[in-house]
Design goal:
By secondary structure, this protein is mainly α. The protein is built from 15 helices and 2 strands. The longest helix has about 40 residues. The termini are far apart. The N terminus is likely disordered.
Length: about 325
Amino acid sequence: MKRLESVRPTQFEGVAAGGPFRVIRMLNMDKPFKTIDEQLEILASRGVTITPDAEEALLREGYYSIVNGYKDLYLNYEKSAKEGHDVFDEGTSFDDIYGLFRFDRKLRQTLFSYFAKAEATLKTQCAYNYSEMHQNETEPYLNPNNYDPKENKKHVDWLITDFKIALGRHPKKKPKPKAYMEHYRRNHDEVPLWVLLRYMTLGQTFKFYCFQNESMRNRIAKGFAELHFASYGERIHISPKRLKTAFDHIKDFRNICAHEERLYCARVSPGRDVSIMDVLPDLRLALSRDDSRRLTSDVVNLILDVISEMQPEYVTKLMGAMGFGGIQDVVDAA
């Protein structure tokens, strides 16, 4: 009896001027190994002009990372649906796809450095304001009563457990604590929050902020507003909710950068509707004026560099995928 081949519906998504759309088709689940020559033959058969550096690029980065990750801008969706496999727009070269791949990597590396600065500011403001409020307590961050009573107790317990693991005090999980934390434990009988948060992730620090009572969240948000005034010379109100929203976005985009995932067209938040354009004003709340200006300049220059070799239709698609209407939007957003 002939074996029935496993199949499943799959989709590929593209971003056009009018927005994303999907083409649904059935594919065999098997993905057999292909040599580099076979990979190049597949690309050529689908309308891609093979350029001299294609072989080395595939050997270094991989077909999946380059082609599957960055083909969307250059696919002809009507022909792809008709043929049952990817078909690229006429005139598409490997360099077009690889150029977008390299642009996205530079974008990740650039934004990651600013996300790191925003992370440092959140950790510092949390540690400073919390420690000032709990000066007479030893390691108050381990006391569940020091968190918002409205918060889910289980979530608070999980965060405290993360702290205990980092400190090497969990009964079951005892990784060797960092030397700088051991120094404080041995010489000062406690590890201050500003030392502990240096080790914790942005996600854990974000939870620490979210789990504070309203009074503490207001103090931390006010600290950001004071920093903004000191750097920009303008008074703004930053509510705890606005700060939470900003760092929720920063956290998610920072993780995309850290894990080398596709960034330029990424969407975060529960509704998957927050783009790169949207996170630039969020970063402005945490960055100094000089850093904000450098961020704008860096992003604009990266975009200008990649679109200098693009046809207008692809420039429109790229800007739409990033959430921008044009270069001026980048400047305005930041």
